[in-house]
């Protein structure tokens, strides 16, 4: 979990202060107003949601993740973190994303647009500095391709 205050007592969380943040919120009398803890899964979900509007991105995750996603979709469940993993440190985060691009878009442009969307979303919504976004493109989806699950795994 990402803790936005330095005195976390939550097990398994990392004390983190985002860039430009100050000490924990206090009242004028010096009393603590509490602490904010953001789970790492929330950071991953924000990254996944940021990718929804990236042009040329067909699906998130590799083959196995997309197959599981098709099963999950059959039960009307959605995993916005599919294909996204994060490592949160002291005030910063590194993101790895695996995706399938649509043909015939520029793969470099899809990767750069994905990187930009993730950085803007995490830095804007969470307040952590994004040190890197590693993009792995595992496949290119051809328009005439249809998979057995239909188009359910497309974004």
Automatic annotation (TrEMBL):
It comes from the Bacteria. InterPro entries: Asp23. Residues 1-12 have a biased composition (Polar residues). Residues 1-34 are annotated as: Disordered. Belongs to the asp23 family. This is Alkaline shock protein. It comes from Cryobacterium arcticum. The lineage of its organism: Bacteria, Bacillati, Actinomycetota, Actinomycetes, Micrococcales.
């Amino acid at each position: 979990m990402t803790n936005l205050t330095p005195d976390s007592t939550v097990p398994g969380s990392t004390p983190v202060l985002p860039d430009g943040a100050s000490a924990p919120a206090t009242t004028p009398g010096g009393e603590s107003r509490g602490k904010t803890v953001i789970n790492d899964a929330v950071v991953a979900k924000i990254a996944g949601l940021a990718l929804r509007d990236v042009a040329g991105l067909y699906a998130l995750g590799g083959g196995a993740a997309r197959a599981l996603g098709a099963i999950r979709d059959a039960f009307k469940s959605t995993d916005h973190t599919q294909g996204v993993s994060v490592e949160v440190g002291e005030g910063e985060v590194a993101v790895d994303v695996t995706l399938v691009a649509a043909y015939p878009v520029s793969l470099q442009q899809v990767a750069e647009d994905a990187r930009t969307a993730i950085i803007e979303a995490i830095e804007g919504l969470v307040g952590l500095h994004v040190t890197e976004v590693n993009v792995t493109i595992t496949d290119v989806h051809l328009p005439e391709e249809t998979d057995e699950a239909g188009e359910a795994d497309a974004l």
